[in-house]
Amino acid sequence: MTNLLSLKTSPYTHFMQEATVELPNQQKLHVEIGGDPANPTILLIMGLGAQLLFWPDAFCKQLIDAGFQVIRFDNRDIGLSSKIKKKGKRLNTIKMMGRFSFGLSNEGAPYNLYDMAEDAKLLLDVLQLSKVHVIGASMGGMIAQILAAQYPEKVDRLGLLFTSNNQRFLPPPFPKQLFSLIGRPENRDEESIIRHSIKVFNTIGSPGFVNQIETAQTARKLYQRSYYPTGILQQFLAILCTGSLLHLDKQIQQPTIVVHGSRDRLLPPAHGKAVAKAIKNAKFELVEGMGHDIQPYFIPKLVQTFVQYFNH
Predict the structure, then answer these.
(1) Least confident of 113-127, 168-182, 187-201
(2) What mean pLDDT do residues 103-119 have?
């Protein structure tokens, strides 16, 4: 596989190599790959507005050390992947959120999560990977559910992390957490944007486990790598215009584990439980004290959970 790409060492970590992969649907996805290509592969799919660096280096390294090849990538519209330019009428996000919570359909987004799942499938095609394990976090978990249901030949085992199937009448995100995620910084200068990012990390993160110095360093690194707020909004619209995945969950046949934090206030644990209930024989695991993030304290537990399940 690595012979197919022009790989170079990632500027962020020595054990990953990076490349930009052109897909047949005209999208370009920026990827980082680490580990022995002879080992089973884990594809990591990140969430709303989250660059590939949101998969912590330590998380990736521990999966590699456990005997896996690991791939993390920027979804379309974020990081160093393709940006989607669309001009059209401004959509009423609040109205769409209301319809979404009642299981009603929305339309008008430049793309939806089915398109993003196709990106992931085509990425595996280009990399000539026939069957991989997948871990999807938050919106990435929604994409992973679609990938497993619609392209079953691509997914061996499925790991879902603090995600939802968006079925109707699930408890909504706590307003503070939701609006911090989709809100805007006070100003457009670098320091204001970084302060806003730190506030988001603190608001949705695991209470008592967020390291302020590391958070500030991460926020600056992410800003300097790529800042594209339009992509965050368009990915949010993609979720609203995809709607419930309940019907797809009933089609998933792959062994599935759903992991959720007990202190998640962006997607409360009922979301993860609903996913596990909808997927045949899925296992649910609640991690005490974890919020909507992957803090260093929880990485060994998460890695052990996924590795044991994928090796089972």
Answers:
(1) 168-182
(2) 94
Q: Which residues contact 311 (CB under 8 A, 6 or more apart)?
A: none
Domain spans of the chain, in order of start: 2-311
CA distance linking residue 28 with residue 305, whole number of Å = 32
* pTM for this model (two decimals): 0.96
Provide the pLDDT for residue 1: 53
What does the pLDDT average to over 250-267?
97
Q: How far is it, in rounded angstroms, from Cα 216 to Cα 46?
A: 20
Contact (CB, 8 A) for 252 and 95: no
Per-residue pLDDT at 173: 86
Q: For domain 2-311, give its CATH number from 3.40.50.1820, 1.10.3720.10, 3.40.630.30, 3.90.950.10.
A: 3.40.50.1820
What confidence tens digit (pLDDT) does each residue in 218-233 have? 999 999 999 999 999 9
| Token couple for 264 | 């998640």
